[in-house]
Design a protein that fits this description.
The complex is a heterodimer of chains A (531) and B (372). Chain A is α+β, with helices and mostly antiparallel strands. Chain A has 17 helices and 23 strands. Chain B is α/β, with parallel strands linked by helices. In chain B, strands 1, 2, 12, 13, 14, 15, 20 and 21 form an 8-stranded mixed beta sheet that branches. In chain B, strands 9-8-10-11 form a 4-stranded parallel beta sheet, with helices on both faces. A 3-stranded antiparallel beta sheet of chain B has the order 3-7-4. Classes of the chains: A alpha+beta (531), B alpha/beta (372).
Chain lengths: 531, 372
Amino acid sequence: MRSNEFDVIIIGGGITGAGTQRDCAMRGLRTLLVERSDIATGATGRNHGLLHSGARYAVNDPESAEECIRENRILRRIASHCVDDTQGLFITLPEDDLAYQKTFVECCRKADIDAEIIDPAEAIRLEPSVNPALVGAVKVPDGSVDPFRLTAANMLDAKLHGGQVLLQTEVTGFIREGDTIKGIRTRNVLTGATAEYYAPVTVNAAGIWGQHIAEMASVQVGMFPSKGALLIFAHRVNSVVINRCRKPANADILVPGDTVCIIGTTSTRIPFEECDNVAVTPEEVNLLISEGAKLAPSLASTRILRAYAGVRPLVSADNDPSGRNISRGIVCLDHETRDGLKGFVTITGGKLMTYRLMAEMATDAVCRKLGVSKACETAVTPLPGSEANSLREVAEVIWENPNTVQKASASRLGTRAERLRGGDRYDQALICECEEVSVGEINSAIERLDVSDLTDLRRRTRVGMGTCQGELCACRASALLARAHGCVERERKDMKDYLTERWKGNFPIGWGDTLREAEYTQWVYKHVLGL
Amino acid sequence: MKFDTVIIGGGLAGLVAGISLQKAGRSTAIVSAGQNALHFFSGTFESMEQDARTEDLFAEAGIRLSWREGWRLMPLGTFRPAGLSLEDVSLLETPALPGSALIVNFAGFHDFFASFLAEGLEKAGTSCRTRVLQIREMEDMRLSPSEMRSVNIARTMDRIWEKVVGEVRELLKDEDTVILPQVFGLEDPTVPGKIREALPARVIFVGTLPPSVPGIRTQHQLQRRYGVLGGTYLMGDEVVSAQMEGDRVVSISTKNLGSHVLSADSFVLSSGSFFSKGLMSTPEHVYEPLFKLDVVFAEERSDWYRPDFMDNQPYLSFGVRTDADLRALKGGRPVENLYAMGSILGGTRPEFGTGAGLAIRSAFAVSDALTR
């Protein structure tokens, strides 16, 4: 067996690709995952991080609702260190139709979602930041999930099962023999090096870019690029997810996550050319703030940390101009039965919430083709880091008296934080003060989690995700990267790219404290450090 | 309380104006909210060259400034054109360090960038050796993960710098230059000079991440000088409102003084730009919060920024509108006895330069206008 031969190749390093690689690897297949950029750079890392109960889809899309609640229960078990069990509220405001609440609750129950109507006063007790004008409230088992952590944990487990991961590696074409896909041609985007990899089955898990991948294989998958813009607020204003109890619309979900909360989204069809560089417009910012303040009035005066947008990989169905009514349902295409092309599977549609089910469906299709009969175990086997039930359990097992830095590490790494236990005082020194990320945790991410630049490091450790947006930690972390990679030259450019990337999310909301912080950061890097 | 002039803002501009006015026999008070741009000062006055008036004022405060046409070494290993600088900064003839250099850092100090310095210098032809000092006196500091920062290290260095210099001498082979972080002489301004004398090689102090040790020392020295001249420095106080009569400011109220207002014949606003809250912004506009002065800014928010972070950002040029004498405008008319200076002017008075140059030149211009 040559080193460029595998049982299955997976294209795409989002949560679907990572989940599919894990599932395939756990079923004993030799897997290769290729990603042209970094993990979770597409829709995976550009959403609310909402652990849907399914309630949002109960009325209009019961199939998605049922999938969501099943996966919700599974993720709480297998990904406990990525999940925050916040619970959720669906509130009715005076301008909403209270009659909708009855339909909503009935549909939830039909989908097996535990939805309980509660008194508005009790809702305020449960979530003090909620709009006090509410006239109705329903409690549902929503939560929040960290998509970066979830993707990294899936990929790590795939690697622990012998999988290979190639980041910064772009697919440039397929190796085809007659009506069969035999492998892929790739190009490393950093070095330009080209290579060929072979496998009897290739899975297209490239999200919105999957249409392009399919075209390369000469089959059609019609995608509907739907942009969703979101805002991150600098405080965890709410501790319970707040939704509007009405037909899904713009900016009607507020999700707490780590130290922040996130309002979103909008839904706008965009041309394919814009998918690689989506920008948030002033109109979207204004809409998100005004609608968000209806859920939690204090948002109107809360500092905004950044604005960002993702592109939903919806599969084209009808002429709906917004994409709101397209099913969030999963689409798994075996191109052999659909198009007569052997050795090629596309897994698309769906959502972060149902990634595991998507992976299971794609892996089942792969196994059918390869004649492998081993059953899926991803619904019952915890991800690396999630072997303990609670953060407290994790931290206390590892450290007798964990300090705040160690607790922060445990919250990010789960039981994997054990590997940091031997760290001395030097390893505990803080690089990122906002998010309490230590030298030890950064070095460990650089060593084990395929980090090539500061932005990759941010996705794996939260370095620079806090209030200051990398003001002081970017150059500290950059020095650690320079040492690990032995290249300062590259880090100079990396620092500039990183700051520009942070700025891209800051200037659409560049007023008040955000502008103050930006002025300071600009001063530090240009005039003090001389970058 | 009644003064000739009350200055709002105790940074570089406020202190230079305050010292000049006290020297001219005026009674002044400075209201300072706390930190200012001197706390993240690079050691070089941006947009300033040789200037006798500035040098004299600083010399009287015990601060020696120097200038030569040339270059200075930046913390990430690049060279920038030199300017009027504190003694801590070495001014070089060329953008290079001939010969060899020993770069010394302290173990676990992440705010000084030895590897970047080494790479930048190697590229400019210097052969570099980097060594890390393990100092016993710094071990307790590490118990807290966020203690290894410039000012904390400088406090320790104030006690043990002679011992540390001894260890650097041990490390030194035949290098022409020793590069050390700017963590020396927080209290005693003569320390950097003494270190230069104590080592048999050229010593270059290179900046760290903020807070800036030479900047904080400079702030203390200027503040002390202002006090010696009889100025009243109200530290940690904040102006909450201003009382006007027609086109004149009569008095201001502060948080700490409560109902005791500060009255004066004239007032000077040097409350800084956005970071110091001298200017504030909402999604729609940029305003000056205290007097609601006229502010120059772009109408459309999209014109406030450029997408490349390193570009010159238009919002940095926004500032308070003034007349020829730096009197602030409100509703298109000058407030008779209110002057604006320093970074609150933004780019509205390009003749004064930018950064520290803008602060010092506009402060002299205001004190001249007030003593004419």
